[in-house]
Amino acid sequence: MSHFRKDAALNLQHTQLLVSVRNGAEIAPAIAGGCEILDFKDPRRGALGRVDDAILNAAIGYCQQYSVTIPLSMALGELCEWNTGQSSLSIPSEITFLKMGFSQCNGSPHWISDWQNLIQRIEESSKHQHQWIAVAYADWRRADSLSPYKILETACENGCAGLLIDTFSKQNGRLLDLLSPETLGEIIELARARQLKIALAGSLRIQDLEILSDLAPDIIGIRGAACLGYSRTSAIQESAIRDFRKQMSFRQKSMRSG
Ligand SMILES: O=C[C@H](O)COP(=O)(O)O
Question: Is 202 close to ligand 1, i.e. is its CB under 6 Å away?
Fold first, then answer.
């Protein structure tokens, strides 16, 4: 059965490859391997681990020094990790996309207003309007989060630029083990209808690209697949990223030629 997205036939757009890097040293191999969106994240700190400010600033300095022009993204962690009185909220203006997760928000009566307040505080401190990416988890029950449908709806209401569907736990199944292509296709259609960018991640591997290319998301995100032996806390490898990017291009070309 094909999972081919309806609008993909009319709009065979290019799916971009996002690679999560943990520091400035990983930027060059990521770009050389074919990364098109550079995402800063500390994989030791969970699905959306935030990198330390010093590491982030050094990485931004590297991007300026070497004129890195691809979009930059950053994992901000989970909403529940941000306390309302936190002072240092400034995010470098070079960062385009901010990813926020909602584990432990299930049942909270004020998670939406907490998130709106955080968006406002960050944008006021940064004096910059970032593009927010709401993160829905395929294993949302385990994460005590909300369903991807609810996150999608709230992302629209809060003026987000996109929705990322990822996995919270990296030990209990990969994206395609947890959500069927049909469900992912349905969420993608809903996101598209609401002009949200849609990104897919969650321990993705090269062999997932057959299904993922049919789904034609805007962005595919990887960390584990960029590392030796799929070990997401090891250093990334240019060759692993290149192999992944090559297979993405191959799949996209196959779709174009029917
Ligand atoms: O945003 C994408 C994630 O960093 C993907 O990480 P992962 O491939 O280890 O699940």
Answer: yes
pLDDT tier at 165, thresholds 50, 70, 90:
very high
Alpha carbon nearest to ligand 1 atom 6, residue: 223
CA geometry: angle 4, 18, 141, nearest 5 deg: 70
The answer to whether residues 140 and 169 touch, using CB atoms and an 8 Å cutoff, is: no
Query: 39 C-alpha vs ligand 1 centroid, how far in Å?
Result: 10
Between the CA of 33 and the centroid of ligand 1 the distance, in Å, is 16
Residue 2 confidence class, pLDDT cut points 50, 70, 90: very low
- Mean pLDDT value of segment 160-168: 98
Q: Mean pLDDT of all residues in the chain?
A: 92
Task: Tell me the C-alpha to C-alpha distance, in Å, between residue 1 and each of 4, 181, 209, 211, 215.
Answer: 9, 10, 15, 10, 12
User: Structural domain boundaries of the chain?
Assistant: 12-256
pLDDT in tens, 193-216: 999 999 999 999 999 999 999 999
Cβ–ligand 1 distance for 223 under 6 Å, the answer yes
Ligand 1 centre distance from Cα of residue 48 (Å): 8
Residue 8 is predicted with a pLDDT of 47
Place of tokens 């901010």: 98
To the question of domain 12-256 being in CATH 3.40.50.450, the answer is no
